[in-house]
Amino acid sequence: MSSPVFFTDLRATNDQSLLDKISNLVEAAGIQKVVKKRGLTAIKIHFGERGNTAFIRPVLVRPVIDVIARAGGKPFLTDASTLYVGTRGNAVDHLTTAILNGFAYSTLQAPLIIADGLDGRDEVAVPIDLKLCREAYIASAVVRADSLVSLAHFKLHEAAGFGGAIKNVGMGAASRRGKMAQHSEVAPAVMQNKCIGCGICRDQCAHGAIRLEDRPPDVPRPREDAAKIAYIDQVLCVGCAGCIHACPQGALAIDWEKDLPRFMERMVEYTAGAVKGKEKRCLFVNFLTQISPACGHRGVPGPGCRRPGIHRSRQCPAAPRLILCQRVSRRKIGQDPGRLPQHRLAPSVGLRTGDRPRKHVLRPGKTLTGGCRPRPGLGFEKPAGCRSSRDEDSIWNLTVSKEACKKTFHCLHCATEAPSSLVGLPDF
N or C end of the chain: which has fewer CB within 10 A? Predict the structure, then answer.
């Protein structure tokens, strides 16, 4: 059985701001059923790396916190320590980075808690008994929370294909030990005919797994001054894949057919472990803003990335599955993303995939801007038959009738009925 997915775009009007739309989206999702009265609600989010902008803006998070608080929950923002080199490897650096990026109690009215403690070792071994993992090492604050709300910043990813709800929870809520377990079989290899021995991969490796050695005489040189070559110690390597993105020569690679499918299987199984015991008390929200062409900690969005909107679902794979129904990531991933293991295998661990999205979340009597043949830079054309004397390049407001709120829309200016087929999702 699939799970419903709701969508709202990022357009705002004089009558309804983006923050109002986010609040309506979360309320329409049934947050009252997710939040336990006076219960602790973990909001799993990526706080962003220092100096990087590819994360959900704090101002967009505040409406979610306010809705949870009104529903009777006690929200707190949380994330776990990272494996890679950065500013979130321990609780002190992590909290400092979060505050510098705008995630402070004074602005959000919710405390920040690093889920796996001071040094990434505060964990709970959750028994799951699945194909590859018998236990999932999940950050203790996530396990002990009464409810879980995932706020994921959607992006593409060099190992997972893309990151959404599954990666935010399955990988993001795992302790350092859990992250290492998921990466255990990802083994980058050096392509000797491309490596120039620059040492960039060695410098970025947090685990000291890469070293430079003299290039053997029988190994071809990509250029005359390439006297060194990189070697990876497979014992020390944790498989985080950070070196792959760091290498400017593209000299590091993974066996995409052998290594990554099992990595994604583990990530799916860890997602099942993270939500175990609160399957009915979870909500998953994906923000499609400033979409990064690689892992979110690496920096700015790539050229041409767009900002389609926000999706939410009560089931974890449903929200990222929505992206696959559209055409966001097919070119970057290089294969049909709907066939990636993280979604193909999700039902086997009790996680449901999602429907195509419903229309914009809009209550009866509320106003929706546009919806009729978008004209970039000019707004929307008025519905056929509209009797208003306003210029056709104006932005036309359509209101939902209380009698048929899901099907019939009316022009506010002349009450002309507009067919519901005109009010659909924007073309990604």
Answer: N
**7's tokens:** 């969508």
Percent of the chain whose pLDDT exceeds 70: 65
Question: Using CA atoms, how far apart are residues 321 and 342, in angstroms rounded to an integer?
Answer: 10
Indicate the pairing of strand 228-232 with strand 252-253. unpaired
pTM, two decimals, is 0.68
Confidence of residue 315 (pLDDT cuts 50, 70, 90): low
3-state SS track over the chain: CCECEEEECCCCCCCCCHHHHHHHHHHHCCHHHHCCCCCEEEEEECCCCCCCCCCCCHHHHHHHHHHHHHCCCEEEEEECCCCCCCCCCCHHHHHHHHHHCCCCHHHHCCCEEECCCCCCCCEEEEECCCCCCCEEEEEHHHHHCCEEEEEEECEEECCCEEECHHHHHHHCCECHHHHHHHCCCCCCEECCCCCCCCCHHHHHCCCCCEEEEECCCCCCCCCCCCCEEEEECCCCCCCCCHHHHHCCCCCEECCCCCHHHHHHHHHHHHHHHHHCCCCCCEEEEEEECCCCCCCHHHCCCCCCCCCCEEEEECCCCHHHHHHHHCCCCHHHHCCCHHHCHHHHCHHHHCCCCECCCCCECCCCCCEEECCCCEECCCEECCCCCCCCCCCCCCCCEEEECCCCCCCCEEECCCCCEECHHHCCCCCC
Measured in degrees and rounded to the nearest 5, phi and psi for residue 166 equal: -65, -45
